[in-house]
From TrEMBL:
One Gene Ontology molecular-function label: RNA binding
Alphabetical UniProt keywords: RNA-binding
InterPro entries tied to this protein: KH_dom (IPR004087), KH_dom_type_1_sf (IPR036612), KH_domain_protein_archaea (IPR019964), KH_PNO1_2nd (IPR055211)
Occurrences of domain K Homology (ranges): 78-151
Top-level taxonomic group: Archaea
Record-given protein name: RNA-processing protein
SMART domains on file: KH (SM00322)
Amino acid sequence: MTTLFITVEDERLEEVKRIIEKLEELTDTKIVFDDKTKTFNVIPKGQNQYEALKAVSVIRAIGLGFDTETAFKLLSDEYSLEVIDLKTLIGNNPDSIRRVKGRVIGESGKTKKIIQEYTGVNISIYGHVIGIVGPHEQVQIAKKAIELLIEGKEHRTVYKFLDKAEREFIVYKTSKLGKRLNEIR
């Protein structure tokens, strides 16, 4: 049996501690907080490591600033968490990180809101990290939109990308639904 470890920022510890009991019930795991290392140890009760990985994803999402309702969506097989570390992509310069975060957020939160509305994902910008929670396919579209902004593309270019991606997604879903209907007939 493998124990998984996850840490979160100090200011998010209490938020995670509040949901431990519920998370243990839903994932069939035992979660122990180690005060010395400030680490959550996630231990699967059965042989299913997958449930332990889901528990780690929920804790990580809360650590990235997502609310518990959004984080618990990760228990569904249809949802995933994607993390973009700005330090890895653009370096440690605080001014550069602040500028890129501003581009992703947009004036009065407009850009972040548009990406969320087009894709149906939740985005959290916390420290030097951008987290995305949502359905797998939509998370990848939102991630690409954010990467375009990080690369310095104009906002209207990103909005056009989102518009095109939405149209293609609707065509894909419609064709998939058509195949299912034909299989039923």
